[in-house]
């Protein structure tokens, strides 16, 4: 089986995200399996797949869509998140595992760089997605002009530079998703283009993620089941490996134990690794003190925190100083209060940064929050350990901001 890479689709609405994914899937399936008795004569690839069609009910993209296709080197999975709220939800869940992103920017007159283009770039940087392929789309609308392509690329690079995005893993490719130019096959209409087709660029330059099985073992606790009087600790392995007999530690309860059995789908196994959803039976300890929200760890001393610093992006109305919030990291939610706000930034307007104390952060702005927690939480800097570094901040049950632990 080819290794899988996941790509999150980003870009301003109507710049061609759905059309591009539809086009890629159509052309790759046709090339690999001669599959293609589908009427695409109107060129509307956005409506090509049933699932994409559903997504476009009423001409509005409404939900997150996962589409998979086999490429030459990889099994490619595209995650399409229509707005930045969905995009953030994705970053916190499925897409947090994405290897990279595609950013679709239309070169057509009156399109180009728009608000969501810039916000998405900012969020990719915030959540550490640094392999990005930029599809300069709708080249047919500018007669496949090399100079129009170069002008737009320079503008995008300027914004990336201002955001501190490192270009070394960023690739630009001119395409027409609708006309199928330079998507999976090099275009004759752009003879000036020295690079590869879009999909060859993506497959040749994107690399699968770092193997987390070499890192220390960590598994956020999802639940504790009791089966025939015996407690079983349930979770999904985020990093490292665990063997039967290993000594484990739960930082929130301060409880140590030995693994007496690893269960998966009701069967016992000797070794658990990244991505496995498992149940643990333990001995020489008492599991009743462990609860959802704790983290099962091995060879890694995690210290629960009662105050955390978060670089956040506000998706609700606002986050204010002294506001009571609920902070979620991994499977744990803790109550807390915002005690300082600084470094406010509006990615789209590039409004100046306030380094001193501020009163609030409004929707679609970013800022650094300090939160004092009434119940400790296990959180680690995102840059060092992503699975314990992503945060959702809610007020009541409503998510107000997302971000990363600093
Ligand atoms: P999304 O909102 O980013 O998913 O954008 P869609 O894929 O729905 O495309 C928006 C509109 O742009 C649709 O009418 C598409 O047919 C059109 N479109 C997409 N790609 C191209 C292209 O390469 N050239 C032209 N001329 N139109 C395109």
Question: Topology of this structure?
Answer:
Layout: E1 4-11, H1 17-33, H2 50-55, E2 65-70, E3 75-80, H3 84-92, E4 100-106, H4 115-126, E5 132-137, H5 146-163, E6 170-174, H6 198-205, E7 218-227, E8 230-236, E9 242-243, E10 247-250, E11 255-264, E12 267-269, E13 271-272, E14 277-283, E15 295-297, E16 305-314, E17 318-320, E18 324-329, E19 332-345, E20 360-362, E21 366-377, E22 390-395, E23 398-405
Parallel strand pairs: 1-3, 1-4, 4-5, 5-6
Antiparallel strand pairs: 2-3, 7-8, 7-15, 8-14, 9-13, 10-11, 11-12, 11-14, 16-21, 16-23, 17-20, 18-19, 18-22, 19-21, 22-23
The structure holds guanosine-5'-diphosphate.
What does this structure look like?
By secondary structure, the chain is an alpha+beta fold. It folds into three domains: 4-205, 3-Layer(aba) Sandwich (Rossmann fold); 212-298, Elongation Factor Tu (Ef-tu), domain 3; 305-405, Elongation Factor Tu (Ef-tu), domain 3. Helix content is 17%, strand content 36%. The protein is built from six helices and 23 strands. The chain has helices spanning 17-33, 50-55, 84-92, 115-126, 146-163, 198-205, and strands at 4-11, 65-70, 75-80, 100-106, 132-137, 170-174, 218-227, 230-236, 242-243, 247-250, 255-264, 267-269, 271-272, 277-283, 295-297, 305-314, 318-320, 324-329, 332-345, 360-362, 366-377, 390-395, 398-405. Strands 7, 8, 10, 11, 12, 14 and 15 form a seven-stranded antiparallel beta sheet that branches. Strands 2-3-1-4-5-6 form a six-stranded mixed beta sheet, sandwiched between helices. A six-stranded antiparallel β-barrel has the order 16-21-19-18-22-23. The chain is globular and about 70 Å long. The two termini are 38 Å apart. Bound molecules: guanosine-5'-diphosphate.
């Amino acid at each position: 089986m080819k290794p899988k890479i996941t790509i999150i689709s980003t870009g301003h609405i109507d710049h061609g995200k759905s059309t591009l994914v539809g086009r890629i899937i159509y052309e790759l399936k046709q090339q690999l399996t001669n599959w293609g008795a589908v009427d695409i004569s109107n060129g509307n690839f956005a409506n090509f797949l049933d699932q994409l069609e559903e997504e476009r009910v009423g001409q509005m993209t409404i939900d997150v869509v996962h589409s998979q296709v086999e490429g030459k080197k990889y099994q490619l999975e595209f995650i399409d998140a229509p707005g930045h709220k969905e995009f953030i939800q994705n970053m916190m869940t499925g897409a947090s595992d994405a290897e990279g992103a595609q950013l679709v920017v239309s070169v057509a007159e009156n399109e180009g760089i728009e608000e969501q283009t810039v916000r998405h770039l900012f969020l990719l940087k915030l959540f550490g997605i640094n392999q990005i392929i930029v599809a300069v789309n709708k080249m047919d609308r500018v007669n496949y002009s090399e100079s129009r392509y170069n002008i737009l690329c320079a503008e995008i690079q300027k914004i990336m530079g201002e955001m501190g995005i490192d270009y070394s893993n960023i690739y630009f490719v001119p395409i027409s998703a609708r006309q199928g130019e330079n998507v999976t096959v090099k275009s004759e209409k752009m003879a000036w283009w020295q690079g590869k087709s879009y999909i060859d660029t993506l497959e040749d330059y994107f690399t699968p993620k770092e193997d987390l099985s070499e890192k220390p073992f960590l598994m956020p606790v999802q639940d504790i089941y009791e089966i025939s009087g015996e407690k079983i600790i349930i979770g999904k392995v985020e990093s490292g490996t665990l063997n039967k007999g290993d000594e484990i530690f739960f930082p929130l309860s301060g409880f140590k134990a030995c693994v007496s059995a690893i269960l998966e789908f009701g069967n016992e196994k000797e070794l658990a690794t990244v991505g496995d959803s498992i149940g643990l039976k333990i001995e020489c300890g008492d599991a009743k003190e462990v609860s959802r929200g704790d983290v099962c760890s091995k060879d890694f001393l995690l210290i629960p925190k009662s105050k955390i610093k978060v670089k956040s992006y506000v998706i609700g109305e606002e986050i204010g100083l002294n506001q009571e919030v609920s902070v979620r990291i991994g499977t744990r939610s803790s109550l807390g209060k915002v005690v300082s706000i600084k470094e406010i930034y509006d990615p789209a307007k590039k409004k100046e940064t306030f380094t001193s104390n501020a009163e609030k952060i409004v929707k679609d702005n970013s800022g650094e929050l300090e939160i004092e927690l009434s119940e400790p939480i296990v959180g680690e800097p995102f840059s060092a350990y992503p699975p314990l570094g992503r945060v959702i901040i809610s007020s009541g049950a409503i998510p107000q901001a997302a971000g990363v632990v600093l």
